[in-house]
Amino acid sequence: MLSDLTKTERRAFAACVGGWALDAMDVQLYSFVIPTLIAIWGITRAQAGELGTAALLVSAVGGWLAGWLADRYGRVRTLQVAILWFAVFTFLSGLAQNFEQLFAARALMGLGFGGEWAAGAVLLGEVIRPEHRGKALGMMQAGWAVGWGTAALLYALFFSVLPAEMAWRVLFLVGIAPALLVFFVRRYVEEPAVYLESRSKLAAQGDQPSALEIFRPPLLRVTVLGGLMGTGAQGGYYAVTTWLPTFLRTERKLSVLDSAGYLAVSIAGAFCGYLSGGYLADKIGRRLTFLVFAIGAGVVAVTYTMFPFGDAAMLVLGFPLGFFASGVFSAMGPFFTEHFPTRVRGVGQGFAYNVGRATGALFPTLVGLLSARIPLGEAIGLFAGLAYATMAIAAFLLPETRGKVLT
Q1: What is the distance between the alpha carbons of residues 200 and 192, in angstroms, rounded to a whole number?
Q2: Rounded Cα–Cα distance for residues 164 and 404 (Å)
Q3: pLDDT for residue 99
Q4: What is the distance between the alpha carbons of residues 54 and 316, in angstroms, rounded to a whole number?
Q5: Among 130, 187, 243, 292, which residue's beta carbon has the most beta carbons within 10 A?
Q6: Confidence at residue 263, expressed as pLDDT on a 0 to 100 scale
């Protein structure tokens, strides 16, 4: 696919994949420091879940806001602001002196976290031709696994050579690195032609699209079902990934290096899942791809966290866990791009994806609260199973859009 892309497509592809990978790195850093914060600051698991939930809840607002800004001021400009924003507040997380300061920094980081996907996905969806749209956005989603893997490597490195009291701060301080990508985006990435044409026509007609247009027919059904599907996908994903390092360290009694190895298997599965999901989205359609991955993710997540296995079996199961839990996202970008018209594509895509993130953001906190009464693994499995069942039902009700030409 890459060799068939034009220069404009390749540059947009590089910017969006790189931005999402670095976004993932900054977001996933937090999951690795949860055990350290519990030990050093004495926070509870519920409070640790609140820190994760705060970033996710605010990211939903950031995604909707960035979508509106992308429609009004351009996809490329909004992408630059989002990348710079999440990088700065990840850096500031490393300077926090107490729970309240870290809560504020993580919550504000969420604005850029949500905004990056909203701007990047709509930019790439509009630039790439229909026959490659699913694969390209699937590869963009695969950037998340790259960023997650980078966070895991940095975690293993810093916590092996530095005291835990210092290592967690250094981990966050490194999060400023994505800011460098802004220079590439500013110099080389162009606005999509379909967006520029749409803005020109709207300006000539004196028409100013409303952000509320997505809540009126015929777009209302797509907005509601898309949000419900996003709730299931992201609720299940964050219930698992936010608590997975803690589950491996506390319930499976693995060391830092051993748990990093187990996570590496899940991350490899995630990378393959993203790529496979993008390929299947173009091959068998968006709707069937959603169903396959939602059912697979639910079955594997429940099995991994709620049934007793030896360490070897846990290692093997990590691959399908990452594969299905991540692959559910690959078809979302092209699906939303193809359903919302250009005039409100940014705000529609940003809202539908991120309202799911806002609701799904409650799952890490709920897992933390429930784990005070039942084992952590059972709490993770329960909420993950419910989330993926919700996604499968919503996906079953969605129409197909494969091959649609944007106008």
Answers
A1: 13
A2: 51
A3: 92
A4: 32
A5: 243
A6: 73
Residue type, 128: I
CA atoms within 13 A on the CB side of 62: 27
As given in the structure block, the two tokens for residue 358 are 């806002």
Contacts of 206 (CB under 8 A, 6+ apart): none
Q: What is the pTM of this model?
A: 0.83
CA distances 280 to 3, 24, 334, 343, Å, are 20, 23, 12, 28
3-state class (DSSP) for residue 330: coil
pLDDT at 353: 86
Spatial distance between the Cα atoms of 55 and 31, rounded to a whole number of angstroms: 12
**Distance of CA 279 to CAs 39, 135, 239, 296, 331, Å?**
43, 5, 26, 17, 9
Asked whether the beta carbons of 22 and 181 are under 8 A apart, the reply is yes
- Judged against a pLDDT cut of 70, whether residue 184 lies above it is answered with yes
Q: What are phi and psi of 219, to 5 degrees?
A: -80, -15
Assigned fold of 8-207+216-396 = Growth Hormone; Chain: A; (1.20.1250)
**Interacting residues of 224 by C-beta distance below 8 A, sequence separation 6+:** none
DSSP state of 403: T
62 closest CA partner among 111, 118, 3: 111
| Domain-wise residue ranges, the chain | 8-207+216-396
* Interatomic CA distance for residues 75 and 120, integer angstroms: 7
Please name the residue ranges forming H helices in 218-331. 220-241, 244-246, 256-283, 286-306, 311-327
Give the Cα separation of 19 and 370 in Å (integer). Answer: 34
Pick from 28, 41, 29: nearest CA to 173? 29
Distance of alpha carbon 168 from the chain centroid: 22
Mean residue pLDDT of the chain comes to 87
Three-state SS at 198 = helix
- Cα–Cα distances (Å) from 120 to 65, 102, 269, in that order, read 14, 27, 23
Instruction: Return d(Cα 315, Cα 293) in angstroms, integer.
Output: 20
pLDDT tens string 58-68 = 888 898 899 99
Residue 256 has pLDDT above 60, yes or no: no
Tokens of 326: 């991540």
Distance in angstroms (rounded) separating the CA atoms of residues 244 and 239:
8
